[in-house]
Amino acid sequence: MITNGVTMRWLLLFYSINFLFLSEISFAKGVKITLPIKSDIKNNHYLSARNAIGMVESNNNPCAKNKLTSASGKYQFMKAWNNFFKKKYGRSWTSVIPSCKSTQKIRTEMGLVQDRMFDLYYDFYAGPWIYKNRGRGYSDLELLAIYHRQGEGGANRYIRTMEDYAAGKWGNSHVKVHVRRVVNAANPVTIIASLK
Known about the structure:
61% helix
């Protein structure tokens, strides 16, 4: 039995803080990720979204390679993106995919380069497309997942018709499954961001 008034106040404070903390976690899944139109590595929502794309595409493995296509790296860009990256970054995407036998240091360095290249892709393509398609029934994170998975033409067609041209091809699940995975991958980071 607690008789000390100071101890009782401390216990009440402790339980109140725990209740608020657990309430934040339980409601954190409802936290809306609003993405900037340009990449911003100081923006928790942007970092959460970029990380979620990498997690779903490759488990954030910079040396990952798709056995069925030319997709590679953390974000699984295909060789078709080489010219864009060479023009905007000075290196092709395939030139920054390390061997999985390379040292951890090299894999980490190349992973950071891949992050910077994803930021350029976001600045020139994904971010403006997301901004243009807000209000069409999808969150920013869902739009990013759709765009990254489908490309611009496929993404436009999907949000207009719900048709997924890539479902079942090249090892792809339906885009709905992909979007759900990206949203789920972002949630833990979102919870942390929401509690800061």
